Amino acid sequence: MAIPRTLALALASALLALLTGGAAEARPTDPGTGVPVLLSASSPPASRDSVRRAVTATLSIPAIGLRELPVVPYDGTTDDTGGTRIQNRGVAASPRGEHGGVGPGEIGNYLVTAHRLSAGGPLRALPALRDGDTVTVTEDGRTHVYEITDTRRTSFRSERSLAEQRAPVPGHPGERPTRAMITLSTCATPEDDAAGNFWRDEHGNPEHRIDKIGVLRD
């Protein structure tokens, strides 16, 4: 028996509320599907024109044995309150919008963050990625393959460093993007602790994050 559309949308709202820790009915919805869009707790209401579809992608990295990690999009910036809440559920978070990045396969910087030690540590082996390793992202039935080309370190205590991480061209704020790129980011807790740096932000993040940069290959 088919499920009525209103019941289906109510179930979708309840699921998103569980994922984000808040009430989904207060969030803007996708104009095409009516499904609520994931927002960070600190984000202002989005206009219908700026709303992106709340489609969860999957991330696979063969070199470190990672397969089909869910990547949840939200309106915000890397490792903010909403993004951290998503990561705490053992999945990856992808900030979009004015201070975030683009979607998979789009020109610009596709930002993906996840925990290394807590919540199952899905990106525990990310630092082991080498140039030439591949990252596969599937969304909406389309598969995008990125090739790792660089490694960066981001400091939460440096506005310049954060701007470089979040720039449309990673590492180059103000530069106009011409390629589809990806930034995979996770904490540098073991490295910071080993260096005697025990600083933490309000979410428990250490000062530094390890970022792997990739370029769309196909």
Structure description:
The chain is α+β, with helices and mostly antiparallel strands. The protein has one domain: Sortase (Sortase, Chain: A, Beta Barrel), CATH 2.40.260.10. Helices cover 17% and strands 29% of the residues. The chain is built from 4 helices and 8 strands. It has helices at residues 5-20, 81-87, 159-166, 189-194, and strands spanning 57-61, 66-75, 92-96, 108-113, 134-139, 142-155, 180-187, 208-216. The chain has an 8-stranded mixed beta sheet. The longest helix is centred in the N-terminal third of the chain and has 16 residues, at 5-20. It is globular, with a radius of gyration of 17 Å.
Rg calc: 17 Å
- Looking at the overall shape, the CATH architecture is Beta Barrel
Q: First CA to last CA: what distance?
A: 42 Å
Total beta-strand segments: 8
Look at the structure and give the CATH class: Mainly Beta
Shape estimate: globular
Largest sheet: 8 strands, mixed
Structural class: alpha+beta
Average pLDDT number: 83
CATH homologous superfamily assignment: Sortase
Question: Based on the structure, what is the oligomeric state of the protein chains?
Answer: single chain
> What number of domains?
1
Strand arrangement within the widest β-sheet reads: 3-2-1-5-6-8-7-4
Helix content: 10-25%
